[in-house]
Amino acid sequence: MRLDIILRVIAKLLIPFALVFGLYVQFHGDYGPGGGFQAGVIVAAAVIFYALIYGLPAARRVVPDAVVEFLLAFGVLLYSGVGIASILLGGNFLDYFVLGADPVSGQHRGIFWVEAGVLITVAAVMLKIFYVFAARKRDAGEAGQ
Amino acid sequence: MLTQHFPALLVVVPLVAAPIIVLARHALASWLIALLATAASFGIAAVLLDQTLADGVISYAMGSWEIPLGIEYRIDAAGAFVALIVAGMGLIAMPYSRVGIAAEVRSEEHYLYYALMMLCLAGLLGILVTGDAFNLFVFLEVSSLATYVLIAMGRDRRALVAAYQYLLMGTIGATLYVLGVGLLYLETGTLNLADMAARLVSVGDSRGVLAALAFITVGISLKIALFPLHLWLPNAYAYAPSPVSAFLAATATKVSIYVLMRYFFTIFGPTEVFDARATGAILLGLSLAAMFVPAIVAIFQHDMKRLLAYSSVSQIGYITLGISMDSVEGLMASAMHLFNHALTKGGLFLVLGGVVLRCRGAGFDRLAGLGHTMPMASFAMVVGGLSLIGVPGSAGFISKWYLVSAAMHEGQWWLVGAVLASSLLAVIYVWRFVEVAYFRAPPADHPAPGEAPLSMFLPALAMIVACVYFGIDATWSSDVAMRVAEVLMSSRSIVQ
Fold this sequence. Notes:
The structure holds 2 protein chains of 2 kinds.
Chain A: H1 5-28, H2 36-54, H3 56-62, H4 65-88, H5 103-134, H6 136-144
Chain B: H1 6-24, H2 27-55, E1 58-61, E2 72-75, H3 77-100, H4 110-129, H5 133-152, H6 158-188, H7 193-203, H8 207-224, H9 232-239, H10 242-267, H11 272-276, H12 279-299, H13 304-324, H14 328-359, H15 364-367, H16 370-373, H17 375-389, H18 395-409, H19 413-439, H20 454-472, H21 475-495
Antiparallel strand pairs in B: 1-2
């Protein structure tokens, strides 16, 4: 166990950068390639990296299953919530124009929250898939004992 | 004021209900949310049908983007009619599910079941309401992915294999569809269905359009389970939890049939490609094969769920037969049978769900003597079976009547014989149930199961009663079906 010190240190160094890079891809999505989907995968990859180096139980302590399942649903709700908000403000569904004082700021605001919803759901779904696969033998073994 | 958003809300209500259910996690709460959302969707679908019958097409600009550029939601009488069937079936399946899944789905997964049902409903309704070819693909995938998981929830281990089989076939179907859409996009430069239809007329007889027609027809036929692309269907229906079998049998294939009608008559209908190739003749051949081969296979089944599943494949043949006639009368018969068969098969699967719960299986050895142990359920099965055959006084008779008269209108007298002969096969497979239920002794280990719980039997009974009702008074259904046929044929007849 003690022999993997290099991996552990490198992981500790890299994970914060991976998370920041995820946020960069998220917010730079307005101007270049990127957006919620790609950013969500990068954020999830950072957590999966942590799980690979420090073990699944450690990752599950940092991001518990209940949180993952909550975020998974919450992201979709955030996305559709933007749509419903624009109906309530007098526009059509997902009409960003009515969300701000002028059309441009409305579009900015709308896409910001929609992409935030995408990031949250994609990251949570990726983690959920990883947890389910990684824990398969473990949970079945516990149940069997 | 809110009614103007109904085309969007039809999809949004179940779509939002799904994550709320996941957050709620509680089985009873999630059931209530699902029930409310389905009821709301049904109400919206009813209002939309009413509006489209009165005013024609309703168009809704998603996100307020100008219409050929942004995604358009576009619903007419045809889409609203199928939406009413889908939401109505959902509304019947929800009260049924409470007890119906208790024995078949693990209790900690109940909330996921309701969430998936909501996603499936949102996907199916989305296909009907969207006016965008790619958006249609997305909803096709939303409903299909939810369906795969719902099937895999079945208690039987073979449900996993059935779901996997359907996943492979369904994915191939969806891929072929999207390839076809890609070709159409290359030819026309638009994804908006109405815009695409208008532009295709000037494209003429190009190889790209022909390939698109082929890809889309085969892709959607896989989802319809049109013979010989039906191999995924029997296992999927047989091993899925009972309410899922009923819901899918009444809705999933019907929605795909709607898509095929849309593409055939609204998109490709006005083009030269459609008339230059024998699309109708190919569909006619496949429909005839579907009417006979799966019906014969159904006769040799030893499991009631599989028998009904093969019967579904056979009945789909009647619907596509009407499409292949390429006339208002034929299409009207198709729309009628789409509705009547949804009622009949949905009702039969619901009744069977109660029987499976009590008899612990749908094999004929488990159902032996059902006429004595569950007299009400087996009587309901027989009534539903009569509607499958098309006995006068049942819904099945009305649609077969229209189908036969459409064939006569075309002067295709031999089709009348084919429909009758295929109905005789239905008599045989329905008789197999009668024989098992009334002329055999109940299994010794399980002599008196008792009737199904009321919450399961009443929804099932409602469907069976509807079968008889729409067999006696078909005014409403035939009027609406006529309008559906006229709407679908309208753009085709302009050119002719």
